[in-house]
Amino acid sequence: MPLGAFRFLDVPSHRDPRGLLGFVEGSRDIPFAIRRVYYICQVPPGTERGGHAHRRLEQLFIPLAGSFRMRLDDGETQHDLLLDSPTRALHLSPILWRELYDFSPGAACLILASEPYDEAEYIRDHETFLAATRASR
Ligand code: TYD
C-alpha cells in the first residue's frame, strides 16, 4: 500500500457452534511480516488514544470485542471509521495520523505490527506530520 493509505481487510475465520476463530498469517493474509503484537483494552469511557503517526510502521487493527472509532488523516483528507467486527480488520500504512475514540465498554483491539516498538519512528507532533506528508508526495 502507498504511504498514507488504509483499507479494510476480511480476516479469514472459522465459525462453528463453538464460536469464532480468526487467523492471520504474516506475509500471506497481510503484506508484511508480523514483528510485534500488542493490544488495547480496558479503555475508560470518554478516553481518546492515538494522536500520532508512524514513519515506517504498518499495522493491522483487529477489533476483537466491542467497538471504537478511528479518525484518520493523510494530510489532505480525513476519514472517520467504525471498527466493530473481529472479521473486518483495518490495515494502515505509514504516514497516517490516527485518533482512536468512542470505545464501547469491554472493547478490545489486537494490533499486528510490522516493526518492533521504536519511539523514534513515531510522529507525535501534527505540524511535523504535515511536513512528512508533503515530503512523501
Ligand atoms: P502509544 O503508542 O502512545 O499508545 P496509543 O497509540 O494507544 O496512544 O503507547 C503508549 C505507551 O506504551 C508508550 O509509552 C509506549 C508504550 N508502548 C510500548 O512500550 N510498546 C509498544 O509496542 C507500544 C504500542 C507502546
From TrEMBL:
Q: Tell me which residues make up the Sugar 3,4-ketoisomerase QdtA cupin domain.
A: 7-133
- Domain of life (superkingdom): Bacteria
Q: What is this protein called?
A: WxcM domain-containing protein
What species does this protein belong to? Answer: Chondromyces crocatus
Gene symbol here is wxcM
